[in-house]
Amino acid sequence: MDQINFNDIFKSSFLERTASFSLIDSLVGLLVAFAVGLFIYLVYKKTFSGVIYSHNFNISLIIMSMATALIIMGISYNVLLSLGMVGALSIVRFRTPIKDPMDLVYLFWAITAGILCGAGFIPLVILGSILIGLVLLFFVNKITIENPYLLVVRYNDLTIEKSIEQTIAAKAKRYSLKSKSAMPASDYEATFEIRVKENDMSFINSISNLEGVKSAIMLSYDGNFTA
Predict the structure, then answer these.
(1) Which of 76, 85, 82, 68 is nearest to 22 (CA)?
(2) Same domain (yes/no): 62, 169
(3) What's the whole-model pTM score?
(4) Strand pairing of 172-183 and 213-220?
(5) Which of 44, 113, 151, 178 is the most buried (most CB within 10 A)?
């Protein structure tokens, strides 16, 4: 019977993986992931056009790039680890709602950058991130976006519906009736999606001054409508 010595006990795949692990390559990948994540952070802060800026979300883009790179590095050294990692990550559920589609773009950008850094495609991630950043800076800051609005009009006289639409047609570039509701006490409510000319919303005063109109409200509209 063969004797097992001290070296045979510790001659395991753990030591083999440790020996094949490159500390310099890992540090370079993580540093590049941090630099690209910081670049994404700056581009997001520069191009953010909303009202409530989330600093925590922006910081998470940097961490997501580095964490994704770390995962890819670990997977690349062991096939069994990759299978276990896929199973572990598949049970994770992210409950934070994404309100702006552009936030999803930045999340995908950060994850993609982390994957490329972890896989060692450093020139590709640097070149791609620069091009993506330039495209975002150009399209977000240079191109004027016409935001649609919702006009909610409450009235108690059906005969003024034509007058309301004529007033809207004279002042809006485009409009469409999204919903119409009949409420108790002979009240009616109509919701229009409109695009105003040069963001001129003064016509709402003309609508509110029509006889029979009880209220007129303008709301910013993100493109999703629920009747």
Answers:
(1) 76
(2) no
(3) 0.63
(4) unpaired
(5) 113
